[in-house]
C-alpha cells in the first residue's frame, strides 16, 4: 500500500504543535513496516523549511475559484533518517506566508485561512495525481490519510467532485489531533469548491455553517484520534460535534501517538549536558545530577531542592491560567521546591508569571517565556517532575518525553495523559508488565503506576499533589527505581504504526470486497 499523508505541518520542516511531530514521524514508521508513504505539506516562508534540503522537483497548474494557479513541488530532506518521501507545495501568495497559522507581524491568524487551506488541498490532490503519472503508479493500492481540519475536505473532494473522479473509491482516513478546532466558515464559501452534486451539500454543513472537520468525519472511510480516551472525551465535548461523534462512533478508533526515538534518545541527545544512564542506580543518579546542574545555567535554582518543570503553550487548554494561582500558593505555603517554566502564549499569563519570579527560600520560581527546543530537552533531562495540569490533552507527548528522560509526570486525568500515566502506588516498581512487541495501549501498563495524577482540578488539590511529589523526591531509592521503570515503557512509533497499519488493511479489505 502507498499511503499519502496530507497535513499542515511535519517536523522538522514545519511545526507549530503536536500535529507536526506526528506527521513527521508516523509516515517514517509506516514505511519501515512496509507501507511506502508520502507526506505533503504547504511551503511556508519560514526558517525551518528554508534551511532544509529543498530540491525543486516539478511544477503544474490547476483550476480553482481564484483562477488558474501555478504550483511548485519541492522534495524535502533533513537527514538520512527519513524513510517516507516528504514534499512541500508552493502556491505563490497562498502558501508562502511567514507563519504556519499566525501572521508574525500582526500576531493574529490569517484572515483568509479557509481559502488558504482549500487551495493547498486542491494543490495536494493535483500534485499526487501528477506524481502518480510521473511514476506510472496505479491508485488501486493507495490510501489518503488526512490530518485535522486543514485537510478534512479531501474525503469529500475525491468522492463528490468531478475534478477528482480519478481518485473516487480510494479509502480515506482522517486523524483528529484536536477536535476543538473545526475550520468553520460562512456557508456561502461552498461556492469556492470545485463543482459537486448539489444534493451532497449537506455533507459540508454543520450547524448552518461550512464545517470542514465535520465534513471529514462524515466522509472519511475511517476516523482516528490520537489516544483511546480522547475518543470518549470527544463524544462529551467537541465544540458542538458531540452528536456527530456519537453517530459515527463505529468508524472511530483511538490510537496512541508515539515519540521519535532518534530525536528523543536520552543516551545520545546532543542537547544534554550529559547522557542519561539508566543501567546502574549510581550511574543514573550521577547522570541525572549533571543535567540538573546544567539547568542552573539557565534558571535560578537551589539544587538541594526538587525541580518541577512546566513546558508548553500558555493557554487555557494546558491549564496555564491556573499557574499563577498555583505558584502563588506554593510560595505562600513555603513548599520547598524549584518551579521552572518554558513556554509562550497568552500575554496576560506572561505578565502574571513574570511578576511571580522569585529566588527567596524555600521556593524558587523562574520562567523563560520563549520557544527553545534545545532547552526543552535539557529540562526533561534535568527536572525531577514534569507538571501537566491540562484541561484538554488529546494525546500529550510531554509526559512521554519526561518518562523517557527520567522526569516523573504530574498530570491531569484527561485524554492521552489518562492512557499513559497511571497513578503511582506505594510499592516500588518491580517490572514493566507487557512486551515491547505489543501494539495495544496495554504495553504502557506498569503494575505500580507512572506518576502523580490530578483528579480534582482545583488549586488546593494541585498544590497538595505537588507537596506529595516533594515528599516523594526525598525517597531517593524509590524515586530512582521509578525513573528506571518509566524509562522502559515503550512509546515508540513502531507500536502506533502497527495499529494504524491494521486500520489501512481493514479499509483495503472493504475496498476489495465492495
Please report the first level of CATH classification, the CATH class of the largest domain: Alpha Beta
Q: What would you call the structural class? A: alpha/beta
Low-confidence residue ranges: 430-443
Number of helical segments with 4 or more residues = 16
- Please name the CATH topology of the largest domain: Rossmann fold
Write down the Rg: 23 Å
State mean pLDDT (0 to 100 scale): 92
Indicate how many domains the architecture comprises: 2
Binned, the helix content reads 25-40%
Alpha carbon gap, first and last residue = 18 Å
Instruction: Look at the structure and name the CATH superfamily of the largest domain.
Output: Glycogen Phosphorylase B
Number of strands: 17
Q: Globular, elongated, flat, extended or rod-shaped: what is the shape?
A: globular
Specify the biggest β-sheet. Answer: 9 strands, mixed
CATH architecture assignment of the largest domain: 3-Layer(aba) Sandwich
Question: What topology, given as strand order, has the largest sheet?
Answer: 3-4-5-2-1-6-7-10-11
- β-strand percent reads 15-25%
Structure description:
There is one protein chain. The protein has 16 helices and 17 strands. The protein is an alpha/beta fold and 514 residues long. It folds into 2 domains: 2-258 and 495-513, Rossmann fold; 281-491, Glycogen Phosphorylase B (Rossmann fold, 3-Layer(aba) Sandwich), CATH 3.40.50.2000. The strands form 3 sheets. Strands 3-4-5-2-1-6-7-10-11 form a 9-stranded mixed sheet, with helices on both faces. Strand 4 (69-77) and strand 5 form a beta hairpin. The protein is globular and about 70 Å long. The two termini are 18 Å apart. The relative contact order is 0.10. The model is unreliable at 430-443 (pLDDT under 50).
